Amino acid sequence: IRHTVSCSECNRRSLASAGGSLSASSGGRSSVGAVGRSPHHQQQQQPVIQGIRWTCAECDNYSLCSACYHGDAHNLDHEFYRFDYNKSARVSVGKRRGCVKMDARGIFAGARVVRGPDWDWGRQDGGDGRPGRVLDIRGWENESGRSVANVRWDNGLSNVYRVRGSIRFRDFLVHLSPFYPSYSRYSTPIVGHKGKVDLKLLQAPASWGLYYRDHLPVLGERLDSVGGGCPYRVGERVRVARSEAQLRVMQEGHGGWNEKMSELVGQCGHVHRITERGDVRVQFDSGQAQRWTLNPDALERVASLRAGQLVRVLDDETELRRCLVDSWQDWHRSLAGSLVKVHSVHSDSSALVVTSENRTARLDPSVLVRLQQSAETAANNRMASHDIGAPLNVLVQKLIELTSSTDAGAASTSTAGGSSAGGSAASSSSLGACRSFLAEVSQGNLETVRQMLASRATPVDGSINGKTGLMVACHQGHLEVVKLLLSHKASVSAIDEERDTPLHYAAFGNQPAAIKLLAAAGAPMDAQNNTGCTALHVAVNKQHKDCVQALLQLGASPNCQDSYGDTALHDAIGRASTDILNLLVQHQQLKPHSRNKRGFEPLHQAALKGNAGAAAALLARFGPEDCGNRRKDDGFAPLHLAALNGHVSVARALLDAGCNAEIRNQRGQTPFLLAVCQAKLAVASLLADRGADVNAADEDQDRACHFAAMRSGPYSKLPEFRLHAAPILAPTVALLDWNSKAPMPAKLVLTAWMLQLGADLGAVNRKGQTAVSLLGNEPDIVTCLNLFHRKLSLERADADSLCQVCQDDLSSVTFEPCGHRISCDHCSAKMRLCLRCKQPIERKLRDQDLIPAVAAAAAAEAGTSGGRQQNNLFEMQEELQRLREKVANEECSICMDNPRTVAFLCGHQACTDCAQALVQCHMCRKPIQARIQLYK
Question: Where are the ANK repeats (predicted)?
């Protein structure tokens, strides 16, 4: 944040060191010229203030930077204003004398630092963990202030590095970012130059200085809202322009958050009133009686529309589907990003728009963007903006009106090349003749055009702004006029200002008959305009099937590439027209490996856009080896792109054609790995069903289970939750016993799902981490995952793996020395003999409490000493169990207090006190015939 004034105190010091002086009364201007300095040097501009500007309320034109203000420059009894950014509203902060000052600590000169999270400078620091000392804090040329640190490392090297954009103090932050290089009271994560952090604080210096805490702004408060009023008026139409996550945060302090507000995202309504705090009460169009109080920064104006106005539709098919009032049809895809004309506006503010094909659609105004007046005029005069719905006779009329309002130099008569020789101005009579000629051609008045040509009043290739009569006639489909102009040798190669030819105009106007006439007259079939588009590109983008068919039959190449490297097939895939796709794919000259400037071949484009029909057609003709398994420069194959973007239909088509499910990109990632990483569960599930390796690792040895364990947020917020995630994960969730009041974490559900698929949760990556260790030490998650593993094991268990006693739990105890494993932990507690071999049990080895991967991970990460400690723990637990069993065998089973001192003939025992009262044995109910005293 840069201001337009410099710091008066910094100027004074600079001039004082050069032999001048500066006074507060002079407003920060030098009162004595620098002795011995040239006038040019005296007028040198001082650096402007970056960050907060502090302006004295009592002195004229006296401002301080933050360092000088907190350093007690100027009179402490003078009141100051704070300007958070250039032209912001001023905030009075009062006097500094007597105000609280606090100590600042952080990355300053003298601090010890090590490499941070965004470090990409090799071994300049001598290696990971090697420290260095900050020499000073600098700005990055003119891009940002106090955003880099000059560091000398212990190995002797020094350089500048991007520093963390915030330094924590006791209760405030010093910012070192290019966005706000100053101070603020409360903490929030901000990063350094260009959003990167190369350094991490290891040891701070003793003190940087003091600061006035209560004079600072609250971090997180929008700067443009300070001191400003509400930008909306009552009755004005607005739209919620923030995502659900953004709106949730922005509502804090502005009426709060309600879960029903998630339905308001993208909705339109009108301002009902403005609250005293500047918040906006909005009545939405959904018919709800309830009005909502919203943060004004979460809203945007919805411009009012009028009949006849040209507007652009947002280039977002998802948003277009939501805002389409009519039922969705395939041709509606062509509306995205196109220019349309408003036919009428309904009472609910929705607009009936007309496309260039004279089709109508009813849209919510939130997806319509108004054009500025200049842009609207340009759209009517440039072939580059051919997505307008007005007929070309209106376009020509606007052209004539525009030409008549300028001087004669704005128009010219053109030769067959489409430009005037030497650029000289045409006479007014020639200009008028051109106007009349084009107007008659646009109306299709054949006889009038014939008479004008016969009289030679205007040349056949006369033009206005490069547009000839043949172009107009081809666009309008006046075939007899086209034949007449061609018979008079009208140029089929003429170009307008955008280098569009008559063939381009015919393709845009959906005139296949005109295309055939032009081709017969020798028109160049592959002529390209300024954007590299051929007539075939135009026809494909406008979805004019008959024109595409005519152009291909007449020799147009399907392999020409525009300025973006896209062929007509690339464009057709984006438009998703099945008929046109089939025409292009079945063309004998089609090259399936044409790459655009982003490196995408047609099949890559189909995988990126989710066009399963195009993918299937290409694979059917060219096969998986010649087409399906080809990789981009970064190693991404079509299946990678389909997995990354969640296009399950494309992935299915690729797999059905025999594409390699284990293909890897340059980072060693498989499609399954990418699908899990992006939580595209439909594709991941499909790949797993088709035999994809769920334990495949990338170059960092990270597996899908690692990415599952690193997923943040609740399970219900997973992408495509209702459509794919919820049905796929439903069996997993049913087995999870989540008893916490907190929402079920996504990482728990995904990790459990990976366990169901057979993932090895104990696999270690290059950082020594397992999926279980990445879950963290959260007891609820560990317990839930352990129970899930037990349930999963029970579901998959056969009869031999169940406990032979209770048949309810898994056999989890191994007896030694026989080695049999026949009972669960509970049933084995009192066993002395193995039920299978009848040998005495000397030792019982129990499974660990957590799932095997957890224990294995803990042992791997703890090392040898940790393993010994764990073995010692198990031995102590075993000894404790033996002591408990011994005590249980020696205590009276009736009173549980006294030792057993009396035995009966049946073999059972009791203590002396209990035995005296017994007539029958308390265990077997046999009559007691004798009591035998025991001595131990």
Answer: 465-497, 498-530, 531-563, 634-666, 667-699
The listed range with the strongest mean pLDDT (41-55, 110-124, 384-398, 786-800) is 110-124
Task: For residue 817, say if its preceding peptide bond is cis, omega within 30 degrees of 0.
Answer: yes
Joined together, the tokens standing for residue 467 give: 């547009």
pTM of the model: 0.49
User: What would the two tokens of residue 444 be?
Assistant: 């299709």
Predicted confidence (pLDDT) at residue 416 exceeds the cutoff of 70: no
How many helices and strands in the chain, by DSSP H and E? 30, 35
Give the SS3 label for residue 89.
coil
Question: What are the angstrom distances between the C-alpha of 724 and each of 607, 689, 735?
Answer: 19, 15, 19
Cβ–Cβ under 8 Å, residues 366 and 302: yes
Residue type, 89: A
Task: Quote the pLDDT of residue 884.
Answer: 66
- DSSP string over 367-404: GEEEPPHHHHHHHTT-GGG----S-HHHHHHHHHHHHH
Rounded to an integer, the average pLDDT of 363-384 is 53
Q: Please name the residue that has the structure tokens 């009591």.
A: 931
Instruction: Tell me whether residue 288 is exposed, middle or buried, using C-beta atoms within 10 angstroms of its C-beta: 0 to 12, 13 to 18, 19 or more.
Output: middle
Position 702 confidence tier, pLDDT thresholds 50, 70, 90 = very high
Is residue 379 within 8 Å of residue 332, measured between CB atoms? no
Residue-level pLDDT at 327 = 67
Alpha helices in 746-851 (DSSP H): 746-757, 771-774, 779-796
Q: How confident is the model at residue 871 (pLDDT cuts 50, 70, 90)?
A: low
- Burial 200-235, CB ≥16 within 10 A → b, else e: ebeebeeebeebbbebbbebeeeeebbeeeebbeee
Measured distance CA(608)–CA(759) in Å, rounded: 28
Largest Cα–Cα distance in the chain? 146
Q: Is there a contact between 65 and 53 (Cβ–Cβ < 8 Å)? A: yes
> How many other CB atoms are found less than 10 A from the CB of residue 807?
10
Mind listing the pLDDT tens digit for each residue in 272-284? 888 766 788 888 8
Confidence class of residue 160 from pLDDT cuts 50, 70 and 90? confident
pLDDT tens column, 735-781? 888 877 788 888 889 999 998 888 888 899 998 999 888 887 777 88
Measured distance CA(565)–CA(601) in Å, rounded: 10
* Residue-wise burial string across 83-97, b where 16 or more C-beta atoms lie within 10 A, e elsewhere: bbbeebbeeebeebe
Phi, psi (degrees; rounded to nearest 5) at 140: -95, 90
Which H or E run includes 815?
Answer: strand 813-816
Helix, strand or coil, per DSSP, at residue 802? strand
The residues facing 899 across adjacent strands are 891
Q: How far apart are CA 771 and CA 709, in angstroms?
A: 6
Among 623, 667, 659, 626, smallest CA distance to 642 is for 659
How many whole angstroms separate alpha carbon 724 and alpha carbon 717? 12
- The one-character DSSP state at 46 is P
Q: What amino acid is encoded at 597 in this protein?
A: K
Stretch 311-339: mean pLDDT, rounded?
75
Res 371: pLDDT? 61
Distance, in Å, from the CA atom of 320 to the CA atom of 333, rounded to the nearest integer, reads: 8
Instruction: Using alpha carbons, select from 592, 646, 659, 649 the residue that is nearest to residue 621.
Output: 592
For the chain, the first-to-last Cα distance in angstroms comes to 90
